[in-house]
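Table S7 (text form). Paired inputs.
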Amino acid sequence: MQGFLNYMNYLLTFLLVLSFFTAASQNNVEDLYVKNNIEKVIIKGFEYKKGSLVKQSHLVHELDKQGKTVLFTSYDTKDSLIRQTTHTFSEDGMTEYREKKDKDGHLQHSAIVVRNKKDRSFRKVQLDAKGDTLIEQLLIRNHNMNDSILYRVIKGQRYLTHKWEVDDEGKLISKKRYHVSGSLLESDSYTYIKKGNCIITENKRKEVIAEICTEGNKEISKILQDREGYRSGIKLVYEKGGESIETKLANGLIDKIEYFSKKGKLLASIQYTYLSN
């Protein structure tokens, strides 16, 4: 049981860390939504195995006038409701309250997110259905917005967990992870090498950990190791030697993302549809 709780803690931490680092890019997407008068985003995912479709997902984001999601809905293949998440914002937009409910309207969990421009902080509290705190985290960035420190907050006490440093272009150049005692658990640094229309990322051991190439409106990411992940409700199987291709529309929004095996077979596809007012 303890092992399971530790795993859930790790998973929650990972998801919250991920949300902190997608916040900046999300702001850019929101700007594009506003610029293009987008009021609804429909996302459909398709997962393939041995050339056959094995899973589909159907997600809908309903947006406010600032391009923020106010209602996120997940449907099954028959368009029946699976779950919904509502997003409510304060008048100044700095505080967000989220509630995730199942198809029967029962609360699964909620979250409170507070952004503070003055001290450049981002606080997120995850609550269970009873309102008890699952995890609380605080991210603080420096004046130049290129250094971030993440704390785990337990009973009001801050515990350092991560540090990141980014360059003026927003690329990650170093990261460190700490034990709750404050001791350093691991660290890494990154170098970016431009080669033609490609950017190659190396870690401090001179290992290539990413290779992304741009061709017109397509961003092609080389898959360098076997692994699995999830996105938009489908399982992604990353096969070493394969690639993912993100295609953008003329307005800068994503049209589709496709994942291919090393033999060029389609493993997954995520397609986006935008409805304007």
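Next pair, protein 2 of 2.
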Amino acid sequence: MAKKSFGDIEDNNKNLGGVSALFNSPVKENVKEDKTTLKAGEETVTYPLRMKKSALKALKILGAQKGITVKDLILSVIEKEYNL
């Protein structure tokens, strides 16, 4: 779909204030920072983890309270338990 530019027409009419927002894509900035730093030579792998729904729900609540993801909660407990 071709982008349309309505120029200054939006300034003169309050009803057209969001028209260009429909056609122009917003400027995206990549602000996401990598929270985990890996040592040289280490790589991450995906491993499925099964758990009870109640445990996952409790982890989600705990994570929301602390502002941490469930993944980070699980990894921090594993690192503490096994001294990794």
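The mean pLDDT is 74.
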